[in-house]
Amino acid sequence: MRKIQFRELFVLSGVLMGALAGLGSWAGRAGSAQPSGLIQGTASAQEQDEDIAQTARKAFMRGKLASNQKIVEGLSTRNFGLITEGTEEIRALVKGQHWFVLRTPEYQGFSGEMQLAAGRLAQAATEHNIEAAALRYFDLTLNCLDCHRYIEKQKY
Ligand code: HEC
What we know:
CATH topology: Four Helix Bundle (Hemerythrin (Met), subunit A)
CATH superfamily: Cytochrome c/b562
CATH architecture: Up-down Bundle
Bound molecules: heme C
Helix content: over 70%
Number of domains: 1
Distance between the termini: 49 Å
Number of helices: 6
Structural class: mainly alpha
């Protein structure tokens, strides 16, 4: 039983590393596409306001990585409290002022799915079921990637 758990977690962690590497490069691409008006000293007041808003939104969005790390650490060390902490942070995100960058039904849908996926992960953590938690985490990560893929196609 224990042997299977470790093997599964090992395989899963490999897959997740790949998924997170994808997230990182996505964030890098998004960053490099930032307007450079401020640096060149040619930005209008409105552009500067947009830059400030964009920086705040990016910082807020990056907060997901810290919560995500808590979950990965919790999974790796069987610290169920840490998993719960990370998932609660992720579920609280939609209440933040920077969350709803789009008011489309799709964005609302991805947000709802993220809430549900985080909720199922929290439930697995409450039940101290490490395999279920690992799989639920995988599900949550796919939701991150799906919403980002959708965002890439939008302009806002
Ligand atoms: C409902 C949609 C949605 C979901 C789900 C979602 N994100 Fe995001 N994420 C965004 C948006 C929007 C941005 C901001 C893109 C921008 O403005 O550059 C973003 C940005 C990011 C960034 C980059 C911030 C930066 O520096 O540019 C990271 C990292 C990130 N998200 C991680 C995650 C993780 C981890 C998850 C899953 C737990 C997740 N996201 C789920 C919508 C989502």
